[in-house]
Every structure is written in structure tokens, then in C-alpha cells.
């Protein structure tokens, strides 16, 4: 009697195990991760490519996807949910950086697909508060590194309110913004502004023109044009011809000229500036 009872119990255990195996294999994600997909799906979203090398999308396929999403607007709650899902440590790139090789591959892919940046030619994409945060963060990084570190683009733009000039002055880089801060602090500077004139220069037999960065008027009557440039760009390409033309223009018009790069703009202690003396 005891043996019969044991056989019955063992048989039931075997049946339960077989049933669970059938049920488990029909519900669990087919990739083997052990998670459960939505009812009727064999895979969790994205897991069907797990462990496999995905073939890149064709240009036509990418364009079709882009067209299908053009004009689509997300609700504010949807935007907030997306933001929370990928903010801070939840972001897949949190604490990571692309290698130089990966950056080059991304750039080449973008060129092939001829993608246009979402904010190209658009104004008002960012609030003034956001632009100021970008400027402060960029200048902090540049000061800490003594210049623009690899991977950081010096492309911030905005408006700087000058108490000395009683108006807002447009800047097109963090370098120009820092130059405005320095000029604002100098007692010997009467006023300064963006240059509103152009200087002609010749490249390969063709006459071109460029607008210098800053025009400064000192209390002692000296006028100065300041060109703001990263050190590694001063002696490259068209900048060589531009600077030579600037020197000639200043000599003919009785102006002084200076070139301010990161070695001057982002010095930890700026005590004396010789411009205008």
C-alpha cells in the first residue's frame, strides 16, 4: 500500500514537471534570457536580434522610417516618461565615451545618409536659461583643460549683456564669451562691440572677405581689433590669409590688433592685459 502511494505521488510530480516545462517554453522569451514577453509574442522587444549581427538598414529603409515619423508630436507626459527612463545612470551611455574609431564611423554613416541635424537653421530651440547653462559648462571644461579637449565642440552661441555698453552683444563661441567677460572687467576699456565691417583678403587669386571679431575703444584713444581663435586654428587654412589681411588693415588705419587664444583667455589668473597700452 505504501509503495503504491509513493508511485502515485512520484507520477504526479513527473506530470507537473512536464507541464511546467511545456508552459515555460511557450511563454519565456525565445532568446533564452528567462524574461516573459507580452502575450502572443515569442520575444521581448529587441531580443530577436540578441547574439546576432544586425544588418544595417538601407538608405531607403531609413528614409521611409524618417518620413513615417515626420510631423509626429509626443504628449508632454510621454516626453516626461521617456526622459525619466533614460536619465542619469539609466542612460545606456552613462559614464561611457565613444572611441575615436567609433566617432569616425558615426560621422561617415551620417555623411552617407545625408542626414540634416534637427536644429540646423532653426532658432529658439533652446531657452536663454539653457544657453547660459551650456556656456558656463563649456567654459568650465575649457578652463580645466587649458583649451578645448578632444570631443568638445566650441559651438555655443548666445547674447551677453554688457553693462559697459548697456546692450546685448552676440557671441558665437565660448572663446568670444570669455573675451567679453575680460573686456567688461578692464577699467581702461571705454567700449567694445562686434565688428560691423569686413576686411578683404586674397586666396588662390580670388578676393574674399571676412568680418573680424571684436572692435575695442580705449580711454586713451587707442582703437584695437581683437581676433578670437583657438591656438591650433590660427595658422591653418584661410586663417593665415585672414590674419595677414587684418595686420595690413590695422596698419593702414592706425589700429592695434591682437589675437586671443586659450593660452590667454583661460589663464587661471589674468592680472595685466597689454591691449590698448
Low-confidence parts lasting 5 or more residues at pLDDT below 50?
268-277
Question: What's the average pLDDT?
Answer: 77
* Strand percentage: 15-25%
Give the fraction of residues assigned to helices.
40-55%
Return the CATH class of the domain at 128-265: Alpha Beta
**CATH architecture descriptor of the domain at 128-265:** 3-Layer(aba) Sandwich
* CA distance, first residue to last residue: 114 Å
Written as H for each helix and E for each strand, in order along the chain, the element string is HHHHHEEHEEEEEHHEH
Topology of this protein?
Layout: H1 2-27, H2 59-69, H3 76-85, H4 100-113, H5 128-145, E1 158-162, E2 167-171, H6 174-185, E3 189-194, E4 199-203, E5 206-210, E6 214-218, E7 223-228, H7 231-234, H8 238-253, E8 256-260, H9 262-265
Parallel strand pairs: 7-8
Antiparallel strand pairs: 1-2, 3-6, 4-5, 6-7
Describe this structure in words.
With 277 residues, the chain is α+β, with helices and mostly antiparallel strands. Among the domains are: 11-46, no CATH class; 128-265, Trna Endonuclease, Chain: A, domain 1. 42% of the residues lie in helices and 15% in strands. The chain has helices at residues 2-27, 59-69, 76-85, 100-113, 128-145, 174-185, 231-234, 238-253, 262-265, and strands spanning 158-162, 167-171, 189-194, 199-203, 206-210, 214-218, 223-228, 256-260. A 4-stranded mixed β-sheet has the order 3-6-7-8, with helices on both faces. Strand 4 (199-203) and strand 5 form a beta hairpin. It is elongated. The relative contact order is 0.06. The model is unreliable at 268-277 (pLDDT under 50).
